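Reopening this ticket.

The earlier resolution said the output was attached, but the attachment link was broken on my side. Pasting everything inline this time so it's all in one place.
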Amino acid sequence: MSADTIVNLGSKAWSVIDDNKASSDIATNIGTALPQVDDWANLSAPAGTNTMSRRILYFHGEDGKEAVAVNWTLHWEYGATYKKGGAYIPRAWITVDDLDIVWGWNVKLTMQVDPPSNATGDPKRPVARLPLRLTKNVWSMFNITNETEPFNWTIYGDGRIETNGH
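Inline output:
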């Protein structure tokens, strides 16, 4: 066990939207990127919380009205230190801020947390790296669309985020 070995003590995957509703899983599931240690009293509070909000939008018919509108936010705490060193992620989670889906359309969102690591490779100055993937499935009963698309991000213990363009 050491402060430069970074582990996820939270969930590896959970449902965000299921059956066109925000899942109850989002209230209790988080991802983490923390040092693999036994003495948690030496872990500081996070330095701050960052967010990134996005919207999923689909239209239907010739009238161009919205069929699917989903607003969600990724949150992550960053900058927790262990014995005054490193930069860790105590919690990463997602919220559904608004959800409007018309009859005949379906949405499912699933969050996956890949294994965290030390972004610097320096055991004396570890910075947590936590890869996340939100998979979007949207389909309609009239075969207007049937699409699956992953959104990939990497969040860091210093507060940064890298996206795949989404």
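Reporter confirms the inline version is readable. The chain has one domain: 2-163. Residues 2-163 form one domain.
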